[in-house]
Amino acid sequence: MSISNRVDIVSVPLGERSYDILIGAGILQVVGALIEKHDLPKQTVIITDRKVASLYLSVVETSLRRSGCSVFTITIPPGEKEKSLQRAGRVYTQLLRRGISRRSTIIALGGGVVGDLAGFIAATYQRGVSFVQIPTTLLSQVDSSVGGKTGINHHLGKNMIGAFYQPAFVLSDVATLKTLPPRELVCGLGEVVKYGIILDEEFFCFTQRNLARALRSQHTVLRAMVKACCTMKAFVVSRDERESGLRTILNFGHTVGHALEKAGHFHSLKHGEAVLWGMLAETLAAQLLGMIREEDVRRICDLISSVPMPPLPQEAFRSLAAAMRLDKKAVEGKIICILPTRIGGVTPPTAVEESILENVLQQMRHYEL
Amino acid sequence: MSISNRVDIVSVPLGERSYDILIGAGILQVVGALIEKHDLPKQTVIITDRKVASLYLSVVETSLRRSGCSVFTITIPPGEKEKSLQRAGRVYTQLLRRGISRRSTIIALGGGVVGDLAGFIAATYQRGVSFVQIPTTLLSQVDSSVGGKTGINHHLGKNMIGAFYQPAFVLSDVATLKTLPPRELVCGLGEVVKYGIILDEEFFCFTQRNLARALRSQHTVLRAMVKACCTMKAFVVSRDERESGLRTILNFGHTVGHALEKAGHFHSLKHGEAVLWGMLAETLAAQLLGMIREEDVRRICDLISSVPMPPLPQEAFRSLAAAMRLDKKAVEGKIICILPTRIGGVTPPTAVEESILENVLQQMRHYEL
After folding, report:
1. Is B190:B305 a contact under the CB 8 Å cutoff?
2. Within a 10 A sphere around the Cβ of A225, how many other Cβ atoms?
3. Interstrand relation of B105-110 and B43-49 (parallel, antiparallel or unpaired)
4. Could A163 and B92 be called an inter-chain contact, meaning their C-beta atoms sit closer than 8 Å?
5. How far apart are CA B261 and CA B324, in angstroms?
């Protein structure tokens, strides 16, 4: 089967850890051929969640079996709380009971939770096995499946345990997005908006023009967005795989975003929604600090406001500062943010006074979307 | 302070992950200077066990503080059972409660258990922080501190969870070996004997001649052994960091050894003792298969027999084959061993019939050391 006519390929150049992201519509069934093409172990393990399994597991299993793979599927409940050391421990047990060897391929079929958990398992089971990502949410297609971050949560913070571990390839099928709940689409659009703000004004304008079509899951728009975001993220992570420099710009919106998620105990707001609120907060902080033109602030706030978001939960305001200090992006007690200076440009990590962020949060308390 | 006159340096060339092993007697107090020299984060965390802490913690803490480091020490109970996901979870909590950031340095002060656990924590805390090894047992100085293997145990098998993660440097102080219990010295000598068998007949002869002196903890002999073993292991892992080829020769004695440890529930036999018995078993298997001269078998058995080892526990014979099949070195149900073909040479991983190993184990049941 010729794959090349139907897919866009974004390469992530990371030396010996380089890999390709394949993007198309209706391409799930090529996974078996890709396993063969990449000469990956044919003892395969699919890690997925119940929701995704009911929709897409059978086409993936069939494709793998047709290519001569053995398939063992581990289905977990959906939800962020599965990104835990406890769940990881249970998955290790399932793999060992099944006799899965170090010459195996773990395939993440699902959104960010599945990808982060499966990636962490792939990085640490028997000191690392082959890994493939099949992201089925917009958020994971534009963001978490690119760059090799894997991780699980700790009750004291999100993604506190993890590893950098690159997949052999990523297969992004935008046709899977048609079954995505609207809130999940919004989460992905949060990251799409982010890429325009941090790196590319032209793409920011594309997103403005096409937001309504994206919200209706139009394939061509989503495919263009996935391709553009992956290209930008590949550019960034290939220059800074382990987040010691440039890669930190991807954290725009995430300092406040993570803290909001944490203050809501990971259920009031989804990650992408929290990042949308976080970008708003960090843009307002940049405004308070006089780092960005009013006009750009207005355009950013307008675009974010045109994404249908749930209101900011009141409990999010409690102990928010403490949550921000515990974030990985905290350095020696100061709260480190990425701040926009224009549409298409952000600062390096910048220490922001707690009082500025508290001020912004008071503003947001009364923010009407 | 000039370090160079008092230490031997073995370089482990692994590209951007290259590092040095510093070997000497009475050199613990240079750790702070080395942290500075390597420009590592000065927020340091020492992970050690109670026994080692009572002997060497204060000199290490003092050295770090003198170099301007902050020091947070986590002391765990001694013993293999601490290499668990549960213990790792508790350590993550301690690090988070203390506010340890991703810009920190984790220092393993102790033997293989501490090194493997601390290395796994360093590899996975906040997706990886800087790591330093100070091995204080002969086994960890000659083996586990070289090559970046980190790992924790699962109740279904040893080291089933882990990562390859290289330290910034290793500081091996052979003066710490004078406080080592005799059984621990024996464990290290098991690996020392292994290096002679797999790679270097001349070193095999050196070990024969100097075994008694080593058993009396004579510094010059131990230092020579540590240096020779590290040099050989560095040679091997630099050619095969992730154990896809040459590095597998280091597993000589380990297929049967791991299974013996597991069958004894990790307490009847220590790792190095199990490897000694494992090397004996795998040498006898090579003999049964006609792969090695009788003369070489005799010399190998003689050297192993001159190391004071505890008897083989009877419970080890139960479910040994099953344990071997679950080992990471199992491929598609066959039992894979490294077999010696002469003193100084071994096979690549070789599938061995279970009946051969059962036969060997029956022989060993009546083996008199």
Report:
1. no
2. 27
3. parallel
4. no
5. 11
Range list of β-strands (E), A50-203 = 70-76, 105-110, 130-135, 149-154, 157-164, 169-173
Evaluate if residue B266 carries a pLDDT over 50.
yes
What is the model's pLDDT at position A315?
A: 66
| Rounded mean pLDDT, B274-282 | 93
HEC string of B290-301 equals CCCCHHHHHHHH
Chain B partners of A157 at a C-beta cutoff of 8 Å? 96
pLDDT of residue B1: 45
Amino acid at B367: Y
CA distance A151 to A43: 24
Task: Compare all CA atoms of chain A with the CA of B331 and give the residue at the minimum distance.
Answer: A101
Contacts of A125 in chain B (CB under 8 A): 160-161
> Is A271 in the active site?
yes
Task: Say how far apart CA B228 and CA B234 lie, in whole Å.
Answer: 10
Q: Which of A159, A52, A34 is nearest to A105 (CA)?
A: A34
Report chain B's terminal Cα–Cα distance, integer Å: 48
Q: Given the structure tokens 């526990």, which residue do they identify?
A: B313
Q: Minimal CA–CA distance to A185: which of A158, A146, A221? A: A221
- AA identity, residue B254: H
DSSP SS3 for B235: helix
Catalytic residue among A87, A227, A251, A299: A251
Does the pLDDT of residue B315 top 80, yes or no? no
Which residue among B151, B156, B331 sits closest to A103, beta carbon to beta carbon?
B331
A5-15 mean pLDDT: 88
- Confidence (pLDDT) at A1: 45
Does pLDDT of A17 surpass 70?
Answer: yes
A224: tokens are: 């263009």
Buried-exposed string B248-259: b where 16+ CB fall within 10 A, e elsewhere: bbbbbbbbbbbb
Residue B175 per-residue DSSP state: G
Residue of chain A with shortest Cα separation from B43: A332
A123 contacts in B (CB within 8 Å)?
163
pTM: 0.88
Task: Looking at the complex, report in whole angstroms how far the Cα of residue B126 sits from the nearest Cα belonging to chain A.
Answer: 5
Q: Point out the residue among A120, A128, A163 whose CB comes nearest to the CB of B128.
A: A163
Nearest Cα to Cα of residue B76 among B124, B31, B116, B133: B116
Residues B117-146 have pLDDT tens digits of 999 999 999 999 999 999 999 999 998 778
- What is chain B's Cα-based Rg? 20
> pLDDT tens for residues A70-98?
999 999 999 889 999 999 999 999 999 99
Q: State residue B157's pLDDT score.
A: 84
Residue type, B188: G
The most confident of the ranges A258-267, B92-101, B238-247, B253-262 is B92-101
Helix (H) or strand (E) holding A44: strand A43-49
Query: How would DSSP label each residue in A166-181?
Result: --SEEEEEGGGGGGS-
3-state secondary structure of B148: coil
Residue pair B144/B194 in contact (Cβ under 8 Å)? The answer is no
